[in-house]
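seq as requested:
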Amino acid sequence: MSVVVFGNSTFASLAAYCLTHDSAYEVVAHTVDRAYVGDGLHDGLPVVPFEDLESRYPPGDVRLLIALGYRAINGLRRDRYLRARARGYECISYVSSRASVWPDFRAGENCLIYEHAIIQPFARIGDNVVIRSGAHVSHHCRIDDHAFIGAGASMGGNVHIMEQVFVGVGAVLRDGLTIAPRTLVNAGAVVMADTEEDRIYVGNPARKIGPRALESTVG
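struct tokens:
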């Protein structure tokens, strides 16, 4: 099955490399908003304006993978994923063959789950979720749509990660917590209590700081 990867950054390069070397998918092109097409090539593949994608790669011929990071507290990836689905494109997911998952595990749509991530039994992963290398998602955790879990992050059992949450590299979440929508948990933070929506948490134990999470991730 042919795949077009949304993105022409190093993040998109990583996703395309993993698909090429660790899946049955063939990456045939990249797509981005017209303003970011540049010279029209990325890693030797054509870059097609997203606005014109149907003319070159219609929904019946390819699937998409939206390989974007956490800009606008995952809002940019959320927007492009929803636009792609509204235009009739099906989005694939990539689960590394080196990730630790159980036979009945099913990722949502447009998920990226990298090597050595651990997904324990009864954990549920929504759509458009990124789980980076070495992250630990414990039993009965729930990760809602459009979240991003950084490399080496670790969460105890029964944690609920709500929509558009970003959990940074090496962060720790105590068991049983609810992480509110659009929370940004900074790298290395140790979260011991439920969070508030659209806020940033840093330190050990984690404390809330300003500005709002959205404001800090739009640059």
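The chain has four helices and 22 strands.
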